[in-house]
Design goal:
The chain is built from two helices and eleven strands. The protein has about 250 residues and is mostly beta strands.
Length: about 250
């Protein structure tokens, strides 16, 4: 199993584990019935019943993991989506499928300042060799488009709280090759790429402040990889990014 597949599988397992407690919490919130009448006093049921469109602005902030723990990310954009199905499933998995997309005109990655780093490697006859190569690149600027967001909205007994779980795939363009060049001289073709892909998965919730309006919070595990568009593909194997937004429903 590749590193990307292991990461996405782990995100799926974590999402399923988190969905259960969130669903249980929502069932006790406000003491409302899942089958309650949809309306201004039950905005969560209203948007489910009407299979509403949703759209609104959001901000992302996150941090890399593992050997990319020094990387930080900031992005802002607009997300939209549309519920496509009626109520499906049973028990804690009962819900509604939604398809969405987002665009982030502001996408930034903050990496260590550019400089040289000493790397080690095993020698064929035993022992360890060392070499010096460029590492780090400062701040990167770009845009991101996520044209495929497949989201499952869980049905609960809450009038205002609606949790969700999603998987998504996008593309990121940066003005310089990202992540910073490693193992090749800086600027040499074939190191990393200005285009990267961003498979991801996460959990979150809508909290309806009133009819057709909600505050939204999500936590996504994001993998960033050029899919070997360059000769090497160091990527960012995993990052955790928190998304906060405000949604309008139509």
């Amino acid at each position: 199993m590749t590193g990307t597949a292991r990461f996405l599988f782990s995100a799926l397992i974590v999402g399923v584990q988190l969905a259960g407690p969130w669903h249980a919490l929502a069932q006790t919130s406000n003491g409302a019935s899942d089958g309650g009448k949809a309306g201004a006093d039950n905005p969560a049921a209203l948007v489910r019943q009407e299979k509403s469109w949703e759209f609104g602005p959001f901000v992302n902030y996150g941090n890399g993991l593992g050997d990319r723990s020094s990387f930080k990310f900031l992005a802002a954009g607009i997300q939209g989506g549309k519920a496509l199905t009626p109520e499906l499933g049973h028990g804690i998995f009962k819900g509604q499928f939604e398809f969405g997309a987002n665009i982030m005109p502001l996408w930034q990655a903050y990496t260590p300042p550019a400089g040289n780093q000493t790397f080690s490697y095993p020698l064929p006859g035993g022992g360890t060799g060392y070499y010096v190569a460029p590492s780090g690149g400062g701040t990167y600027y770009g845009v991101s488009l996520t044209p495929v967001i497949m989201r499952w909205n869980f049905f609960t007994k809450s009038r205002r709280f609606q949790p969700w779980f999603q998987g998504a795939g996008g593309i990121i363009y940066t003005t310089h090759k990202f992540p910073p060049d490693q193992l090749v001289p800086h600027g040499t073709p074939g190191g990393t790429s200005v285009f990267n892909f961003s498979p991801q998965g996460g959990v979150g919730f809508h909290y309806f402040t009133r009819s057709k309006r909600s505050l939204d919070v999500g936590v996504n595990g994001v993998h960033i990889s050029s899919a070997s568009l360059g000769d090497r593909n160091p990527g960012v194997n995993a990052s955790i990014q928190v998304q906060v937004g405000y949604t309008f429903w139509k």
